[in-house]
Each structure stands twice: as structure tokens, then as C-alpha cells.
Design a protein that fits this description.
The complex is a heterotrimer of chains A (about 240), B (about 270) and C (about 350). Chain A has ten helices and ten strands. By secondary structure, chain A is α/β, with parallel strands linked by helices. The N and C termini of chain A lie far apart (about 70 Å). The radius of gyration of chain B is 22 Å and the shape is globular. Chain B has eleven helices and no strands. In chain B, about 75% of the residues lie in helices and about 0% in strands. Chain B has one domain: Orthogonal Bundle (MetI-like fold). The N and C termini of chain B lie far apart (about 50 Å). The relative contact order of chain B is 0.15. The chains are: A alpha/beta (about 240), B mainly alpha (about 270), C alpha+beta (about 350). Chains in contact: A-B, B-C.
């Protein structure tokens, strides 16, 4: 019996001392659409790219991120209101576009064509920022019900939509202009009327649980700097001003 | 003195291991009150996910049994040159990462793939993805079960005037029954939990292709943590039932022959 | 026309080829060491093994003909096969096992083999002897043209064996089916078969009635297999038609058969007379030694005396009050020996 207690005590000791020690590298959680550009601005951090909503949920559960760069301001603001990160600032803007496979199998020319019968449309899941923007665009164009009826899959992030359109698995998908630009040779783009474009503001904040507040702020400065903004522009993002 | 130090270390390791395995499962049920969890279960996301999972799993497992049983019997009873290769191929999806399986299915059956079908994004795609990743679990077990049937019993049946079909259904199948059921339980468990291949090949659409694992991920991402927990709890309960069934089956008195029958996988001799 | 004919059957086995021509009309036993290919022959007749060449004919109809491309499937051959471990279906009752062969006759066979009271039992609950009876009933329920038995008595303990052997003997006598069985025990073969064939390394060394095999073994292996003593030695001198052979331990044996050089002399245990006093008859060979061991074989007894095995009746043993360690005289006539040359002696 004594042995059992000793064993359990030893085990708890080992486990409790296994909490992560602060490490040198920064951890940046960023929206999937930032996959290509952020590492070009700063190569050193560890990046986790996914749908912004997934990342926000992970931060809520205590994930040890240092910086959160989301594809909207809503998610960082939610975290800030819970004191999970600092007050977010806009660091880039984007546009929504429709992409179709290079062969354009459904012969789509305008956004309205997506409402045609039998067209296979891909969007992101509702909580993902690009999914919300898509809904906004469709409502603005009064196409929401008809196009949503043609949706065959709601992907977990925008890159999933891109990948499947490039493969030719579906007829059309809603993605960021920056994603379309990244693989422009592998697909065709259908522009969305400017009047229907939602305001897409990317927000960045320093996560409270990170433990590298100083370095995190340095990173944010880098992103907001002239050099950082130039890089973003070269990848198709619209500058924040 | 040395003895008790070893004992303490071993005990500590065991404690950590068991706690690690048990904690996540228990925590799911301690998250909120049972009534709150049950409330979540009535939401449309959850019920749709349950229905999609049930439908696709049952069809997938039926396909696996229908096609996998004769395959396993062939591989168990015939010795031919390419036998080890055939068995390796059958076991391949077992070690393949699900994402790779998804890619494979797309390149084979995608619209722009080898066969150019319109299967992606349909329920059929879910069935295929589930069947692909879980079939090795059934087939391996089936091969072992068939191998354990005493060949003399098969010979005896033939000498008593029974053809191959009658021999299979009246002698081989009843004797291999428990092994086959165990394989099916394993395959079912794996299939229900499938995520990577499904989301790649079938996508995710509520009521059509969104299975429970996909729904859990989506609800988590949408900030509906409680719904995700509720569905997880359902899966945990189902898994426990499955596991208990498996253990019960495995403790069934051996009736096929004096040879031990429960091996993990087919014999590689011959 | 033989009831069962195996003609030039050829089955390549792991270390040798099995070649056999055999006619079976009543009961034939194949004996030989394990690995000689005995079971393979039974399986070839049943169709479980496909010979590379040869023919199998039953009542004139070809069941297998390599040259003619005939190979009747197993289930179409009317055989009754008794497997070594009986191969009873463990998940079926005794009745269901027999019904598997033929529904209509099941009841009759349960009755005939005296296993009616076991009809509802599972094979796992039966004793060895009971299982054998069920297996036989099942094999015969189909009224086969050929009965094949694989080591029918091997799985039984010695007490059950004696009983079952007698039952089997009676059964085979009243059945009119060509029966071929294999065994490694010559006693069993002798008890049950009309003719016995000795199979060694895939070849039939000799086939004939038990008496022929014992009286005139074709080679030392057959001789040793049928229980003869084999004495190795060198011919020391020959005179008056009697050759004197010096054995390895120095004993001199006299044999009436022509011999020279290194020889093997075969002496049958039942040709050896055991007495507690020196013999007064014409026997030239007398061994005076203690009894090393006594083995009881039913109503007979085998005694190991010096380099010899002698076989006498239990009655005689009791009369002479023989026990182990007692010094006796074991004698045999020079004419009661057979000489086998060393060349033949390699089994």
C-alpha cells in the first residue's frame, strides 16, 4: 500500500514538472490564407496555419500561441474581450473572388452563373472567416439561397477549397484574391462586383498565454512595418490604410 | 532496497500510463451536466451527423463483409506465388496515413482522376473512404479466422459429399464465426472514427457527408464546444460497447479445433 | 475387375517420389514408418491430393486418370474417409454429423453403431472410442464404394485399442466394401487386413498375407517391421551346409541358409523356445542369459533374453514362473533363421 502511494506521488511529480518551459522560438497562429506570405516576412517563428476559427477555439482552450493573425477582426476581438489577447489591429486587407478550374467545366462567367442547376460549389465552413464573407457577398447579390443549394462541401479552411478547385473536383469556389493569385496558373478567376465586396480586415494581436510578449510585439511590428506591408502587397493583399 | 525502488518506478509508470488513457475519456463526461449533454444531442447538426455516420458505416461494413470474406477465404486457403504480395496489398491501407488515403481516392476516383467519376462529395464517397481505411482490419482478422479452421474438417466435409459452397457455409463459416465478428467490430470502430480520408474525398456537408468526426471538428471550429463534447460522448459510449462486445466474443470457448485461432493477422508462411 | 485399383500412381513428395500400383478387393493395410507416404495414398484415392501421373479406378469407373485428364471432384467420389483425429464437426451434434453425410440413413447408423444414446452430444464430450464409432458411422452412412482409414487405432489408449480392434475387425468382415487403411503398427494391420503392404520411402517393398510377410520377408526392413530379430555378424566358417556366424558380441549363431561375409540373420521371436533347463532337442543355437525385460501383448509375452526377443504365450510364462532377471535358456533351430545380406540390410 505504501508502495502504491509512493508510486503515485512520484508519477504526479514527474507529470507536473513536465509543463512546458519557455522556448526560444515564437509560435504564430495564422489564417490559412497567410501560409505563403508570413514566413517570408519572418522566417524564425513556428507557424500553425488553419481556419481562423479553429485557431481561435484552440487559443480559448489554452493553446500556447504567442501571436494570433486572423482573417477578420471579429475573432481577435472576441478573444480580447475575454482577455485572452491584446487589442487587435488591422494589418492587411483582402478581397473575395470566385475561382474555377482552368478548363472551367461548368462554363461559368459571372457569379450569378453559380446559381445554375447542377453547378458544384465549394465554400468554407460557416465559422471560418472566408465562409462568413462568402455568405455576406451572396446575400448582397441576392444569390444566397440558390448558390448555397449548389454547395457540395464546406471545407475546414480556404486552402481546402483552393486545392479541390485546382484538382478540378468541383466547378467553383469562394476564396481570397491572394489565394487565387498564389496558384493563378492553375485556375481561372471570376471577379466579384465591387459593390458586393465585404470589408475584409485581417486582425493581429498578442496572445496573453504566450509567454514571449516582448518578442511577440516585435513580430507584430515587423508585420506592420513598411517592409512587411510591401511583402503583403506583393502577395496580393491590400495595404491596411 | 533496490527491489522496492524498481517497484516504485514501475508503479509510477503504470499509474501515468493508465491516467493518461483514462483522463480524456472521463473528462468528456465531467465537462457538463448529463442533461445539458442530452440537450445538445437534439440539435440538427448532431442528429444529421448521427444519421450520416450510421448510414455510411453500415453500408461500408456490409460491402467489406460481402467482398472481404471471399477474399480472405481465398488468401487463407490457397497457397500461390503472389500470396504474400496480395496480403501486403490488403494490409496497406492500415499503415497509410488517412490523408494519403484521401489523396489516393481523389486521384483514382476524382472527376479529374484516373477513372473520372462523379463520386466525390457524395454519400458514396464517404462509404468508399470508410471502407478503404477500415477493410484491412476485417480482412486480416478473417484470414486468421479461416486459417484456424482445421483443414481436415474441410476435407472431411468434401469426402462426405459436400461441394465447396456447402462446405463453406455449413462448416467453415460457423467455425470462423467469432473471428469474423471480431474483425467486423474492429473495422466498424475504425470506420466510424474516420476523418482525414473522408474530408478529402467526400468533403463535409451537413446531412450529406458530415459524419460525426467531421461534425465534431466543425462544431469545435464554430465555437460550439458543448455540441462537440456531446458528440464525443456518444462516440465514447459506442466505442465502449463495441470494445466490450469484442472482449466477450474473444472469450468465447474455442470450438474450431485444437489450434489457437486469435492471431493478429494472417500467417506469413507459404 | 478390382473394387479399387491404383495404377502407376506418382506423387512427388518432399524427399522422394511416391510410386504405387495396388489392387484392393477386400481389406488391404499399408504399413510403414511415418513419412513413407501412406496418408498421401489415401488422400489420392479420395481426391484430396492430385497425383502427377497414374489412374485411380473404382469398380471399373475412372475416378482419376492423369493421361486422360479425368479428375473427379472429391464430393463426387463415393468414399468413406476416417481421419486420424476423426475430424468430427465440433459445432454439430453426433446426429448432425452423421446426417451431414446422408439424412435418411442417419437413424439406422446411430442404431447400428450403438451410439443412439449419444445422438445429441457434441464431439467434444465423447471419449476416444465413442468418437471413433461416430466417425465410422458418418463415413459409412453415405454407403461409399471405398473405405479409407488413416491410422484408425492410433488415437486410442491401449485398453480401448484392443476392444476397438475387435469391433473394427467384425465390422470390416461384414461390410462388403473395398477397404484400404494405413497404420504404423503391424499388429493392427495383421489383425484387420487380408493383405498387408509394406511401404518404405514411397515404394511398396512387399505385399501379401500376414503369414507370407512374416515367413518370407523380402528385406530386412520388412523383417524388422514384422517383429523379427536382426542379428549382425560375420561368417566365421561353413561346414555341412551350416554357416557359423560370429555376432558383434562374440556369440556364434548357426544358420542353415547359405551365407558369407557380413550378414544379417533374422530370427522370429515365436521361433525362439524359452526354458529354465538346457534344451534336449536338436537346436544348435542356445543362448543362456538373464531375462532383461518382459512385455505383455494380450495373451502373449515378449521376453528380451540376451541379444534376442522371444515370444511365448502368457500361459507358458505362468507355467515356467518367469520373471525379470531370471536366467533362462533361449534356443532356436538353425533352420529357424533367415539370412539377409548386408546390402539388403540398410532399411
Amino acid at each position: 500500500m505504501k508502495l502504491a502511494v509512493a508510486a503515485a506521488a512520484l508519477a504526479l511529480l514527474v507529470v507536473s514538472s513536465a509543463s512546458p518551459a519557455p522556448q526560444a522560438r515564437l509560435t504564430v497562429f495564422a489564417a490559412a490564407s497567410l501560409t505563403d506570405v508570413l514566413p517570408k516576412i519572418d522566417r524564425s517563428p513556428r507557424y500553425s496555419f488553419a481556419g481562423s476559427n479553429q485557431l481561435a477555439a484552440q487559443i480559448q482552450q489554452g493553446a500556447p500561441a504567442d501571436v494570433f493573425a486572423a482573417a477578420n477582426m471579429t475573432l481577435p476581438r472576441q478573444l480580447a474581450s475575454k482577455h485572452l489577447c491584446s487589442k487587435p489591429v488591422v494589418f492587411a486587407r483582402n478581397k473575395l473572388v470566385v475561382i474555377v478550374p482552368p478548363t472551367n467545366p461548368a462554363r461559368l462567367r459571372r457569379v450569378a452563373d453559380l446559381a445554375r442547376n447542377g453547378v458544384k460549389v465549394l465554400v468554407a465552413q460557416p465559422g471560418v472567416p472566408v465562409g462568413t464573407y462568402t455568405a455576406q457577398v451572396l446575400r448582397a447579390l441576392h444569390l444566397y439561397e440558390r448558390v448555397m443549394a449548389n454547395v457540395v462541401s464546406k471545407e475546414t479552411d480556404v486552402r481546402g477549397v483552393v486545392a479541390k478547385i485546382v484538382l478540378g473536383e468541383a466547378d467553383a469556389g469562394f476564396v481570397y484574391a491572394t489565394d487565387a493569385k498564389a496558384v493563378r496558373d492553375d485556375l481561372k478567376v471570376i471577379a466579384i462586383p465591387a459593390s458586393a465586396e465585404p470589408g475584409i480586415n485581417y486582425g493581429i494581436c498578442v496572445v496573453a498565454a504566450g509567454g514571449h510578449a516582448g518578442d511577440a510585439r516585435v513580430f507584430v511590428k515587423k508585420v506592420l512595418s513598411r517592409a512587411g506591408q510591401r511583402k503583403l502587397r506583393s502577395y496580393g493583399f491590400v495595404p491596411r490604410r | 532496497m533496490k527491489r522496492s525502488v524498481t517497484a516504485v518506478l514501475v508503479g509510477a509508470a503504470a499509474f501515468v500510463a493508465l491516467a493518461f488513457l483514462v483522463l480524456p475519456v472521463v473528462a468528456i463526461f465531467l465537462h457538463t451536466t448529463p442533461s445539458h449533454l442530452i440537450d445538445q444531442l437534439s440539435s440538427s447538426v448532431v442528429t444529421d451527423a448521427l444519421v450520416v455516420t450510421l448510414e455510411t458505416s453500415l453500408i461500408a461494413q456490409a460491402l467489406i463483409v460481402l467482398l472481404g470474406t471471399p477474399t480472405a477465404y481465398l488468401l487463407a486457403t490457397r497457397r500461390f506465388r503472389a500470396r504474400s504480395l496480395a496480403i501486403t496489398l490488403v494490409e496497406l491501407p492500415l499503415v497509410l496515413p488517412p490523408a494519403v488515403a484521401g489523396i489516393g481516392l481523389l486521384t483514382a476516383f476524382g472527376r479529374s482522376g484516373l477513372l473520372g467519376t462523379s463520386i466525390p462529395f457524395t454519400k458514396a464517397a464517404v462509404v468508399l473512404a470508410v471502407a478503404f481505411v477500415s477493410s484491412p482490419l476485417y480482412v486480416r482478422q478473417a484470414i486468421a479466422a479461416f486459417e484456424a479452421v482445421d483443414p481436415d474438417l474441410v476435407s472431411a466435409s468434401r469426402t462426405l459429399g459436400a461441394g465447396t459452397a456447402r462446405t463453406f457455409f455449413r462448416i467453415v463459416l460457423p467455425l470462423a464465426r467469432t473471428g469474423l465478428a471480431a474483425g467486423l467490430a474492429l473495422s466498424l470502430a475504425r470506420g466510424i472514427g474516420e476523418f482525414g480520408a473522408t474530408i478529402m474525398f467526400a468533403g463535409s456537408l451537413q446531412g450529406v457527408t458530415q459524419t460525426i468526426p467531421l461534425a465534431i471538428y466543425a462544431e469545435f471550429g464554430a465555437g460550439h464546444f458543448d455540441a462537440a463534447v456531446a458528440m464525443s460522448a456518444v462516440l465514447v459510449l459506442f466505442s465502449i460497447v463495441l470494445l466490450l462486445t469484442l472482449r466477450f466474443l474473444l472469450s468465447w470457448p474455442r470450438s474450431s479445433s485444437t489450434r489457437s485461432w486469435f492471431r493478429f493477422g494472417p500467417s506469413t508462411s507459404g | 475387375m478390382a473394387a479399387l485399383l491404383l495404377d502407376e500412381i506418382l506423387v512427388p513428395l518432399r524427399s522422394f517420389d511416391l510410386r504405387l500400383t495396388l489392387e484392393v478387393d477386400r481389406t488391404v493395410a499399408l504399413v510403414g514408418p511415418s513419412g513413407a507416404g501412406k496418408s498421401t495414398i489415401l488422400r489420392a484415392v479420395a481426391g484430396l491430393v492430385r497425383p502427377r501421373a497414374g489412374r485411380v479406378e473404382v469398380a471399373g469407373k475412372p475416378w482419376f486418370d492423369a493421361a486422360g485428364g479425368i479428375d473427379r471432384p472429391v464430393d463426387e467420389r463415393e468414399v468413406g474417409f476416417l481421419f486420424q483425429d476423426y475430424a468430427l464437426f465440433p459445432h454439430l451434434t453426433v446426429r448432425q454429423n452423421i446426417e451431414f453425410a446422408r439424412r435418411q440413413t442417419a437413424e439406422a447408423y446411430l442404431e447400428r453403431f450403438g451410439i443412439r444414446h449419444l445422438a445429441g452430444a457434441r464431439p467434444g464430450e465423447l471419449s476416444g472410442g465413442e468418437r471413433q464409432r461416430v466417425a465410422l458411422a458418418r463415413a459409412l452412412a453415405r454407403e461409399p464404394k471405398v473405405l479409407l482409414l488413416d491410422e484408425p487405432l492410433a488415437a486410442l489408449d491401449s485398453r480401448t485399442k484392443a476392444i476397438v480392434r475387435r469391433e473394427l475387425h467384425d465390422l470390416l468382415s461384414e461390410l462388403d466394401i473395398a477397404t484400404l487403411f494405413v497404420t504404423h503398427d503391424f499388429e493392427d494391420a495383421a489383425a484387420l487386413a487380408d493383405r498387408v503392404g509394406v511401404l518404405v520411402e514411397g515404394r511398396l517393398r512387399q505385399i501379401g498375407s500376414t503369414q507370407e510377410l512374416v515367413a518370407r520377408p523380402a528385406d530386412p526392413f520388412v523383417a524388422s517391421f514384422t517383429g523379427a530379430n536382426l542379428l549382425h555378424g560375420t561368417v566365421a566358417e561353413t561346414s555341412n551346409g551350416i554357416a557359423r556366424v560370429r555376432l558383434e558380441d562374440g556369440t556364434i549363431i548357426a544358420t542353415a541358409e547359405p551365407a558369407e561375409g557380413h550378414v544379417v540373420v533374422a530370427v522370429y521371436p515365436w521361433d525362439v523356445v524359452v526354458a529354465t533347463e538346457p534344451p534336449h532337442d536338436s537346436a544348435l543355437n542356445v543362448i543362456h542369459a538373464p531375462i532383461r525385460s518382459i512385455t505383455e501383448l494380450g495373451n502373449r509375452v515378449r521376453l528380451a533374453v540376451g541379444p534376442l526377443s522371444a515370444e511365448i504365450t502368457s500361459e507358458s510364462r505362468r507355467r515356467l514362473q518367469l520373471s525379470a532377471g531370471e536366467v533362462v535358456y533361449a534356443s532356436f533351430k538353425a533352420t529357424g533363421t533367415r539370412v539377409l545380406s548386408r546390402a539388403e540390410a540398410a532399411p
